[in-house]
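Structure Section — protein described below
Tokens — whole-number codes for backbone shape
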Amino acid sequence: GRILVDLPVLVDYRTLENIDSVEWLEQLAAIDNLIPAGAGGGPAIIGDGQVPREITARRKWVEGLNEVDRGRLGDNLEAFFKVPEERRERLRKIAVKIFEDETRTPHLLGSIRAYWALLERLGTRQATTLNSMEPIEDRLKQVTERVGNEMVLLYSSSVSREDQQAIRDWLDQLHYREELFSSLGFGADPDLRIISELLYGDAQNSFITQEDTDKLVREGLSDHARRLLADLSSNPSRRVALGLWVSSVVQPAENGSAKMVDAAGLAKKFGELEGSERDRLELMPEDAARNELRRQLGVPDLAPDNTSGVLDSNRRPAGNNATERPSLPLKERL
């Protein structure tokens, strides 16, 4: 009987471990795009993931589970009763909140499962730091920013035709501006230089000015793309987002550089890895980490003297405004 009462906690125990209060549950549920940002991740769902409200129905639900799901439920049960009673009671209150309004239950469950997926992508160390962050407003700010970054990265692999055309028109305008001729470089790949400036350049000194990027956003991009950029907290973050989108739109035949084309793909692949695998890459030298990601994508290693892609913020191509960039953790650069 006790197990059936606690069944909502036991079924989603792995995701509920990351929720320390009803307040944090409500804050997560209010974050726009949290669920799509966590799509494709999350722990294995036990059964259909929807625990019945009535105790008698719960018994039948458990009896209908397959052997694998019963094993997962047993593991969660064992872990749940190893934690202090105070924590168990807190998880019960959170579960009650999730199931008290049937119309909100799917959204609340989707929110905590998506949050689990985001934490997995961060890796163990960053996830632990985030979950312990106080006050809760600071934690919310960090999660909201992460959701914004995930949505930007997702969009880089599926930029709409409307936005693709807007980006191409914008690039053409930059190509034919006389004052940019020396910055883009005679004989150099102009698109590669533009992408590099967006990803690594200082907006205050870059030949791609704030006015240039504002024009693309204001006059060219769709409402959906503008909303994604608005969710990012800083202009530098928005410039990097535009750099990823531009690099995903420009094709190898157009810019002659497979390196920059696969940059967004490398970042996307890194985001799809399990937390332990990301931690392993985090400890590797940068070139080795990039080559490992390319190997997993089936992309040949690139020549070491080529311009580095989005995973390398320490080097930029020679030319105007070339500067040394401080070394940052791999996840920060992504």
Notes: Confidence is low (pLDDT under 50) at residues 252-262, 299-334. Residues 103 and 260 are 45 Å apart (CA to CA).
